[in-house]
Known about the structure:
The protein is mainly alpha-helical. The chain has four helices and four strands.
Amino acid sequence: xxxxxxxxxxxxxxxxxxxxxxxxxxxxxxxxxxxxxxxxxxxxxxxxxxxxxxxxxxxxxxxxxxxxxxxxxxxxxxxxxxxxxxxxxxxxxxxxxxxxxxxxx
Length: 105
């Protein structure tokens, strides 16, 4: 089992992208699931590190990962690879396939 950490800003992006690709109904359904699931933690990051200059919109995920002291930031987005080169603050980035391997153990 794992906990999924999200912020209001991330939740809004999920809703926007899901409505864009699927429908507003699907977006609302997913948002409601995330807001009521027992393994979802709602947190906010008030410090902006700006660690991903190639795509500044991705910084909200890195900022929250640092604030929440997560074990893994799971993404297949290549922009996050820069985080593996930064010594401080550390952000443990793994791909979805790598995270699936972690969950098997």
